[in-house]
Amino acid sequence: xxxNLSLQIIPVNVADAYPIIDAAIHVVQASGxxxxxxxxxxxxxxxxxxxxxxxxxxxxxxxxxxxxxxxINLQLHLKKNQDVHFEDKTRKFNTL
Length: 96
Hints:
alpha+beta, about 30% strand, Alpha-Beta Plaits, 4 strands
């Protein structure tokens, strides 16, 4: 089943957090999964095992990029017998 995962990685006690966050986002971009980079989090869409694996890889990339201490927020939306897609939640707000 397709799920949605929101991933927020917050480096703690660093002068410049953006290179650390960017390293995590690059992992998401290279994953081949559907994603959206947003101001406070990156959204992923795909099978549960894959989105969770990408979240763990993103965490590792952030640590390798200098993130000695991270706060990671995950939100997961799944349904028992139904796929979850970004558009199902946002379509009604997109009038273009």
